[in-house]
């Protein structure tokens, strides 16, 4: 996937999304919830980037800010050569067909008063000049593509199961032949046996149509299955961005390590033998993040520098980006605990 | 799990039917299981498989109508708690059987302090005085790992995070030292790192207090980590029951096998494609006369339409203790029952 001759389809640089906090009698602006704080990454055409993290880490906000469903506070979001963050409303409307979204809750994201063909056909009437006959044919085509029976075209969302509703949401996202789709927890609300159906469908569509995905999820096993590269977020920042196999074989950032170790494996023997890194406490509030590294309040490997200075996302080995002082080779005076530990860590990782 | 010991909870042929305007829904069909002291029984199934309804009906938490318990017995010790009065049953709930629900925010009362809510069962069931109960609350909060317990006891539920709220729920459930703790998806609403904390806490508490736990979940990963035995439910009935290791290494029911195939792995070889179970779980509108899984089953044959398979033992252990399966089809023996 690391072909330098191709330009990335999506390039995000320094994306910030702050939600202002107003308080007091005069509703003065007293602070910001830094939901997304200086996030940068790119996605190559045809690639799937997994975005993982716990609730409240800002992963969904990244997805929404990327499609400008929120107005980003700062940063550039270049999708297919245009900076989305700066487009005028009309230019943005014309850009919308390129980029679409599949939402988590198919129940809440489908209008209960619209029939299936009205839901899937709505983007077509908004953005194309198809006559009613062609439009209906395109709706049928989309229904075939996502595995919905054509007979259901006049039914309403409540008549469908969760998995089928998610298929409707996917068909709607596909209607305008997008290049890039943000999948925001598309399987979180579904039963296990149905999750696999939807994930397989997303993979098939990617093969057939050459789609590019940002796959947002808290399900680390499913992200391992579907993603090519994975970004791990914690409290508004990306802490590690690595190719999938390298990350799962050996996570570098202490948070990524703890997160992966917390995943429950469906294997009783392994469950008994492996060691779990238990993090103490809860996520700090994004309105009042710690002064140094955002993870310093829970990090098992914390040292002095972490409390005062925010680490930057650096490429520590080919393709692997980590934001952690343990891996900061530029400053070897970073405390003896960190320095030596990191070198050991790195040497292990090079074999990947 | 001492041999010959009497189970703390023994459920025989429990059957629950909902009467709705559209007709009857047979949510639980002749479910039997037993639970030994200190044991964790995992209950797995998709939504609508009847796992929660089974547990709700055995402690009389389902509103009736529409729910109606059509048969079976639930022996708690030597008493059939389906036959006792509502008043006596209320004494059993909380005192003998504790509950932890999925969503701690909706199961705690937002207008009372946490202390108030944990004191309630202590005063109601154990007849403690208020000062006694207050002291016990602090003990309980410490037991479930809430720091600064004496101060936090005066807080309201919204002042706690999700993981901490779930700890409060566990403290309430444990207040009267119940024999059985029913945990209905207690970690589903929590993040993975918090989920790991709660799982470790439950393992620790079970060792300390020796209560039996029924752990309802759809997450096979959680089951693998905590359960001793597992009961797989489908269409309101038990389709497979086995010690946890047997279930994962030698699953027999086509549903169990398919379910294990649908979850991606976090380590080892990465699967090229996930296997799927086509179709949807059934809605049981009548008492089953055929196998509920037959429409989605890869191996279904004539017998599956003709008769609902009964549970048959696969080893010499008594039914409900060893490995049994409700299926007409026999899985071919595995050449080597080792790691996949």
Detailed description of the structure:
The complex is a heterodimer of chains A (352) and B (340). Chain A has twelve helices and twelve strands. In chain A, a hairpin with a 2-residue loop joins strand 11 (314-317) and strand 12. Chain A is α/β, with parallel strands linked by helices and 352 residues long. In chain A, 34% of the residues lie in helices and 22% in strands. Chain B is α/β, with parallel strands linked by helices and 340 residues long. In chain B, 33% of the residues lie in helices and 22% in strands. Chain B has helices at residues 51-58, 86-95, 104-107, 114-126, 130-143, 149-152, 162-174, 192-209, 220-226, 244-249, 254-262, 302-306; strands spanning 9-20, 23-35, 40-44, 67-76, 79-80, 97-100, 180-184, 212-217, 229-234, 237-243, 312-313, 324-325. In chain B, the strands form two sheets. Chain B has an eight-stranded mixed beta sheet, sandwiched between helices. A four-stranded antiparallel beta sheet of chain B has the order 2-1-4-5. In chain B, a hairpin with a 2-residue loop joins strand 9 (229-234) and strand 10 (237-243). In chain B, helix 5 crosses helix 7. The longest helix of chain B has 18 residues, at 192-209. Chain B starts with 8 loop residues before the first strand and ends in a 15-residue tail after the last strand. Chains A and B meet through helix 6, helix 7, helix 9 and helix 10 of A and helix 8, helix 9, helix 10 and helix 11 of B.
Distance between the termini of chain A: 16 Å
Outline type of chain A: globular
Q: List unreliable stretches of 5+ residues of chain B.
A: none
Distance between the termini of chain B: 28 Å
The radius of gyration over CA of chain B amounts to 21 Å
**CA gyration radius of chain A, whole angstroms:** 22 Å
Question: What is the tally of helical segments of chain B?
Answer: 12
Overall 3D shape of chain B: globular
Q: Percentage of helical residues of chain A?
A: 25-40%
Q: Strand share of the residues of chain A?
A: 15-25%
Main sheet properties of chain B: 8 strands, mixed
Order of helices and strands of chain B: EEEHEEHEHHHHHEHEHEEHHHEE
Described by strand count, sense and barrel closure, the largest sheet of chain A is: 8 strands, mixed
